[in-house]
Amino acid sequence: MLKIGSIVMKQILRNNFFSKIGILFILLQIVVQCTGLKNRYLKNGDLLFITAKESGLSGAINKVTQKQRNISFDHIGILEIVDNDFFVLHASPVGGSQRQSFKEFVKDQEGDKQKIIVYRLKKEYEKVIPDAIKNAKSMLGKPYNDIYILNEDSYYCSDFVERAFRDAHIFKLEPMTFKDRVTGQINSFWDGFYKKKNIPIPEGKLGCNPNGLAGSDKLEMVMEYR
């Protein structure tokens, strides 16, 4: 009797194990299918905005540039779709101006739990996308501009995107400010940032930022990728 009971218990445990494996497999399939479904809604030339963190460089950028009350961004890239392959053209502190696989780009945001918000050019401006991507590719390989003062030898993220679409006047350069939106004083992070680099704060010089680009009346928000 004990032997029979032991056999029955092993069978139950074995069935339970395979049931869990089956459930896990189904969940993985759902995740894959959902990702594939979202990818089907992406279009060549979509702009991928990354939500801002609250601290460090990201937080400092947000404190002096945020325009929308409920959402703000600290990075942006251009989606390029070639056949069934997805890439992101962007300028990053790690790797400079680069063409990165979309899968890796998405994975890079997971560690900091940042969201990807997809914007798209309004229909009447879609015709400029091929030239913009061509312009973006011509800038690949340049280092990252870590002083955020426009020059022809290095680019920061929004600078890279603005230049790609510059011929079509999708975005515009505006006087930069490093003043805290609440106090009206130069933000302490930026004060220390430029002192360390022994460079005057470029207050009022022309530039751009992800929040400013997201405010273009030539774009529309499409979806949250994740």
From TrEMBL:
Name the InterPro entries for this protein.
Answer: Papain-like_cys_pep_sf, Peptidase_C92
Instruction: Keywords in alphabetical order, please.
Output: Membrane, Transmembrane, Transmembrane helix
Ranges that cross the membrane: 12-32
A Pfam family of the record is Peptidase_C92
Highest taxon of the lineage? Bacteria
Write the protein's name. Answer: Permuted papain-like amidase enzyme, YaeF/YiiX, C92 family
Q: Which organism is it from?
A: Chryseobacterium fistulae
